[in-house]
Amino acid sequence: MNQRTLGTSGLSVNPVGLGCMGFSHAYGAPTDRQTAVRTLREAVDLGYDFFDTAESYTGVNPDGSISYNEELVGEALRDVQDKVVIATKMGVAHNPDRSLRLDSQPETIRKSVEGSLKKLGTDYIDLYYQHRINPNVEPETVADTMAQLMKEGKIRAWGISEATEDYLRRAHAVCPVAAIQNRYSMMARAHEALFPVCEELNVAFVAFSPMANGFLTGAYRPGTQFTDGQDYRAAMPQYTEEGYTKAQGLLELLTRMAEEKDATMGQISLAWMLCKKPYIVPIPGSRKPERLRENFAAGEITLTPEEVTAIDTRLDTMDFAVFGGHSGK
Length: 329
Ligand SMILES: NC(=O)c1ccc[n+]([C@@H]2O[C@H](COP(=O)([O-])OP(=O)(O)OC[C@H]3O[C@@H](n4cnc5c(N)ncnc54)[C@H](OP(=O)(O)O)[C@@H]3O)[C@@H](O)[C@H]2O)c1
What we know:
Low-confidence stretches: none
CATH architecture: Alpha-Beta Barrel
Bound molecules: NADP nicotinamide-adenine-dinucleotide phosphate
Number of domains: 1
CATH topology: TIM Barrel
Strand order of the largest sheet: 3-4-7-10-11-12-13-14
Distance between the termini: 30 Å
Structural class: alpha/beta
């Protein structure tokens, strides 16, 4: 499998990474520790070598204790740390009402990095993202702090999640950014505007929620209920009746293409972005070994440039109701 490079960091990874968030956060009650660790180890055996977590990925276990995603990832990957790339993030905390509290002050970054190192059980972090831009802290300040952490050997590279062009340019001028991590899927293409910037600066584009929070797999039907209080999908517009109605054309397109390519709908949704740009790395999340296998294998599916363009042309005509952003471009 051809590896993809993360900017000029010297890090390279297989085309499909693994989003680990769901084991603790946002998709219902956390997975129990033993199962999560076993599944993450299975992911390594399947070929995954790029794992995405965050300081803020936490959830409440049935016994009331907190599931810290970084601890699960750290425990699972400790023995293979030198063979994989582990990314984590700082700079946001979740309020009880699910709104975000942003803090990227240098002293907070330093405190967070120590906490993440401890939870991961490592002495360095491969890729350290600022999870969200903090309007009260200049990008140069964050970049300078990251540069110091790199010098101290605490992190190997850094990135920005939900980056904007201006912020990325200013930060990159101080300390080269290896990757941005933004929402990107067939239903949320606003950040395509950043592709030329990634190309110019040699920055990788890590795509989060690449299957529109699972919607593009076609595994869910109108009426599917997400009843667990910790499952954010209950409030996501794509899972409403209107969401399904608006996405009907896309689901039909995916069904047809999946048949043509002897693939699954989810695989087509990932192959579409993988075949679009060599610096895009989707990080679909799953807690189920069979789905991990399926998603990883999307890296083997080829869509021709003409097929990618034809899909884009169709997407341009569609309007979606989707979490975290506007549809289309
Ligand atoms: N930087 C940020 O602000 C940010 C925000 C959100 C997410 N992320 C990162 O991006 C990762 C991926 O995003 P995401 O989890 O929100 O969305 P996603 O990858 O688009 O979708 C994940 C959902 O799809 C389901 N799923 C996965 N593969 C499937 C398959 N083959 N068939 C059917 N269902 C499937 C999963 O359920 P099961 O687990 O039950 O399989 C899960 O509910 C996260 O884990 C996290 O690391 C980052």
